[in-house]
Amino acid sequence: MSSIMDALSGLQEESGPASAPAAAEAIAAVHVVDVPEKSCVVFCGSADWVAAAKGAAGKQKQKADGAMGEEFNSPVVVGGALCGVRVASLSVGPCAGHVLALTSGGHVFAWGQNGQGQLGLGKEGPWCVPGPARATLWEALGTPTAAATGKNHTLVSYADGTLAACGAGDRGALGLGERKADMPEALAAPKAVPGPAGRGVVAVAAGCDFSLAALGDGSLYSWGWTEFGKLGLGDDGCYNTKDSSIKLTYTASGSPAKVNLGADAAAKVVQVSAGKNHAAALCEDGVGFTWGDGAYGKLGHSDQVQRNSPKALEGARFSTLLCGDSSTCALGWPEYRGRPFAKTAGDGLLYVWGVLKGTHGEGATRPVPNYDLQGWAISKTCLAMGAAHCALGAEDSAVAWALSPVAYGQLGYGDAGPKSSHRAKELANMKGAKCAMAVASSGQTHFLCDADSVAALPVWTPPAPTQLTAPKAAPKKAPSKKPAAKKQKTAK
């Protein structure tokens, strides 16, 4: 009888007037990787960085021209310059063709595409570096703490809160200023980002051609190409370049500008993420915001509308938010009366929205849980979002699946396994692997692991840059010849 009365009492309490809002609970925080004492980088996917960064189009070109790098359907340990090095964090973005690794000793290693100088190796750097190479120019600016890799540019933040950038700057993604000299097509040596966005940085993100930075005071800054409203500044910077006809273009915003999250932002921004053309920010209280290109519902607001300003996500509080190409994923908990409830082990349930099964046209326009992985204790640093696939390390194992068809072996299912799968599957060769971090791009997946736990994996020694052949330069078009002016006949 007492149990019935207790239940009725609880029901009455639930149906009564709402209590005063409680103080905001700290749910999200700046990502900190629990670095193993002996760490190593595990990799699966394509080492043909140029082709893999182009996705399906790159695969077709690969078939025609031949691969410029090996392809690993099963995970391998990255050797070469990283042998015996204690890597502390990794960075590769969903549209990036290059990787940065930061070590516990303050060193930087970079590899992948370098056509616009995005590796920060200086003017003498090769067009592509297939394996880790020491990038001392980054180290000369301070002690690196985090990095972000865009399509053709790179950001690195430092222990003193400063920020540096290099790579393609013609669309303003480097944040060096508004002058033409501040927006170079290629900048091979890292340069400090001036202004407020270059001080007190705690989190950075790099998209296709834009950048984001969260500062220690909780503010958020953005800069770069304004198309799709992905800077979150209230408009998409579109204008007409012709007076006599319609020829639209967008604005290169080279100076970082402060982003207003609106009235729903009651806490500091602690994490930022940038996809191809959309962005996300996460506040300390777990409230997530998205903006930019809304196609496929990847913003999570129950529609496909482009948003030029940040809008808060509803229905859950999050511990991490990650943007891909046509999808977004997160870890978090359902929200009830403004607070998360039913917290699970790890950093929350897995949510995914946008494109879910590209070949079948299945998707979601709001955050929905992925029940294939319900019950897994997933750490926020071990969840990765590539252009079209997800991967994670948890419970001494690793899991991956595709949101749209993939073909570079980045799921790591092995030579006998499928290239692509919409259902989450464990990577057989990663059983027993203790993962501290996971990152993913268009054609690769990388895990930061305890070296002893993956000692059985083969070690891959990357080729030297001199063993690669640079792509042929596009032929220059011959200048068009103007027809000779007709001589006017003179009256006799």
Brief characterization of the structure:
It contains 4 helices and 32 strands. The protein is mainly β and 492 residues long.
Q: Indicate the percent of residues in helices.
A: under 10%
By CATH's scheme, which homologous superfamily applies? Answer: Regulator of chromosome condensation 1/beta-lactamase-inhibitor protein II
Determine the structural class based on helices, strands and strand pairing. Answer: mainly beta
**The CATH C-level class name:** Mainly Beta
Q: Strand order of the main beta sheet, please?
A: 30-31-1-2-32
Q: Which regions have little confidence, pLDDT < 50, spanning 5+ residues?
A: 1-22, 478-492
Distance between the termini: 124 Å
Tertiary shape: globular
The percent range for strand residues is 35-45%
Q: How confident overall, as mean pLDDT?
A: 88
Task: Supply the number of helical segments.
Answer: 4
Main beta sheet? 5 strands, mixed
Give the number of DSSP strands. Answer: 32
Task: Please compute the radius of gyration using only Cα atoms.
Answer: 24 Å
The total number of structural domains is 1
Q: Could you say what the CATH topology is called?
A: Methylamine Dehydrogenase, Chain H
Describe this entry's structure for a reader.
Helices cover 7% and strands 37% of the residues. The longest helix has 14 residues, at 2-15. It has one domain: Regulator of chromosome condensation 1/beta-lactamase-inhibitor protein II (Methylamine Dehydrogenase, Chain H, 7 Propeller), CATH 2.130.10. By secondary structure, it is mainly beta. Residues 1-22 and 478-492 have low confidence and may be disordered. It has helices at residues 2-15, 49-52, 56-65, 136-139; strands spanning 39-46, 71-78, 87-91, 98-103, 108-113, 128-134, 144-149, 153-158, 163-167, 187-192, 201-206, 210-215, 220-225, 239-240, 248-249, 252-258, 269-274, 278-283, 288-292, 307-312, 316-323, 327-336, 339-340, 349-357, 362-369, 383-385, 389-394, 397-402, 425-426, 435-440, 444-450, 459-460. The protein is built from 4 helices and 32 strands. A 5-stranded mixed β-sheet has the order 30-31-1-2-32. Strands 21, 22, 23, 24 and 25 form a 5-stranded antiparallel β-sheet that branches. Strands 3-4-5-6 form a 4-stranded antiparallel β-sheet.
